[in-house]
């Protein structure tokens, strides 16, 4: 039974994160919020050096951690500009014209800022490319 309880806890933790982003963005579509969380996490992961990306992944709830690492090869070229980073997020959200990729990035980064331990947050923020620093909450 402990295994099923662990699974239930993991699902609840992932849903809590997704619910937070849903509320932050004022959306009612949890599926779209789920895609938004993954889009930003993947774009951020690929913008970090491998050690920092792994360190961030270790802080995520178990189910989100698995999705965070899905498809990662550790050698991907990061978005070299802020526009490229935001375009990657927009593309992952099916280029929906009703979605502002910058607003989505800010919401998910605010979620990380609220939920990560302070020391880990500072490491991730410091490792984020300079052209993305102002997307983090102040």
Describe the structure.
This protein has helices spanning 2-25, 30-45, 50-59, 62-69, 82-92, 101-115, 118-127. The protein has 138 residues and is mostly helical. It has a single domain (2-135), classed as Globin-like (Orthogonal Bundle). Helix 1 (2-25) packs across helix 6 (101-115) and helix 3 runs antiparallel to helix 7. The protein is globular.
Task: Give descriptors for this structure.
Globin-like; single chain; 138 residues; 7 helices
Oligomer: single chain
Q: Segments where pLDDT lies below 50 for 5+ residues?
A: none
The SSE string, one letter per element, is HHHHHHH
What's the CATH architecture name?
Orthogonal Bundle
What is the name of the CATH superfamily?
Answer: Uncharacterized conserved protein DUF2267
Kindly provide the radius of gyration, computed on alpha-carbon positions and rounded to a whole number of angstroms: 14 Å
Helicity level, as a percent range? 55-70%
Domain tally: 1
Range of strand content: under 5%
The biggest sheet amounts to: none
